[in-house]
Amino acid sequence: MTDPLFHMISEGPRPVAPFSHAVESDGFVFVTGQMPTDPNAPDADLPEGIEAQTHRVIENLKIVLAGVGLDLSHIIMARIYLTEFYRDYDQMNEVWQSYFPVDRRPARTTIGVTGLALHALVEIDLVVKRPKK
Prior knowledge:
The protein contains two helices and six strands. By secondary structure, the chain is α+β, with helices and mostly antiparallel strands. It has a six-stranded mixed beta sheet.
């Protein structure tokens, strides 16, 4: 087993709590849940609505993944947290599926929660596997 690597991505979103953007161990990369904040304007208001927030979260995940040399195709598991589960589930799914080919969708769990940091509607974390060289 290799020692874990703790990654902070300089271009990544400003953390909303004390954490690393990602932690890597034995070929697995665990990506901290990302919020719908704009890395270029971290104090700006969050985007309006679940579709815009889901797009922003996925774009932030792409930034973190790129920072460790990976992309969305390397995701093996995602957890999605929604504060308005029944209202937003279908719309979030429409956005989510637009990022993945039908035959390459990651395993996934979606959870309704009572609240998220910054009063976000959605947060997504990932388990990613680095390909063998």
